[in-house]
Amino acid sequence: MSKVIEDTRPVPAAVRTAPLSHARMPRWAPAAIAAGSIAAGCGVGLGAGWHSRVQWGLIAALLFVAATYVITAKVENVRQAKDRVATSLVWVCFVLAVVPLFSLGWVTISKGMEVVDGHFLSHSMNGVLDAQPGGGIYHALLGTIEQVLIATVIAAPIGMLTAIYLVEYGRGKLAKAVTFFVDVMTGIPSIVAGLFVLATWNLMLGFGPSGFAGAIALAILMMPVVVRSTEEMLKLVPNELREASLALGVPKWRTILKVVLPTAIGGITTGVMLSVARVTGETAPVLLLVFGTKLINPNPFEGAQSSLPLYVYEQYAVGTDASIARAWGAALVLIAFVMLLNLVARGIARWKAPKTGR
Question: Could you tell me which residues come within 8 angstroms of residue 347 by beta carbon, excluding any fewer than 6 positions away?
Fold first, then answer.
């Protein structure tokens, strides 16, 4: 039988006394450091005579990151300090992105709610001078709804079919050329799309200003966004689903229609709504092609129309208290319109998404 040999060597004192766990900062430490950094940033700003709250916030953010590193390195160790600094930078970037958004929303709501009521939403500026109080945005709201709806009807099918071609059928030089031009169209300024439609639709073909002309320009701006978003969503659909459908003898077009598109419908709808949100606030194409009017024109195919972005621009340019108040009210309605479209899109995506489970 073999004998068990025991290690009788003495254990070093440093090993015997080494703790099994190192010191850790309490859970409330980041909040306390943040509060102290904000107080210190405000104190530095007041002491230096800075009136901008943005400067105070930047000083507080820098102090928060620096204090997090120093305190964590003292209490814990350098490795944990680096980890906490990375987390702190993420939080600082998040706050820097969210604060302007909340500030914009708060200012728009507080100033816009002063004029938004039933009369403001149901009346136009017909017979009302821009410098006088009164009037409303009904003509601009109607124009925006019609123009965005027509642009979506034009751009969404074309963009989705283009993305389906690129993902499911596109091979060779033609697909590369289409991808290249889609990338180019993604970055074109809105004024370029407006000038293109003005040169072709209005000057060459002889049509006058109308909401439909503005919708064509908006559709040109929407198409590359729809193509890119739909293409990425279709690429996320597992190939196993396509192969299983094809193995059952289902034609490819029916596989795309019944399997691929329903699987990606949530992301596709979100992409379409992103494109709608992008063009809803465009002013340059509307200014060139729709011209703007104070009257209610329900016909988007004939005569000048208005839109909410153009209305905001015109009213703010007047510069009186009444016109600026109307501009804030129209901006609030425009934001609410975009939010409503996003809620509807999310509802449609959830309704049409494939059911999971039993």
Answer: none
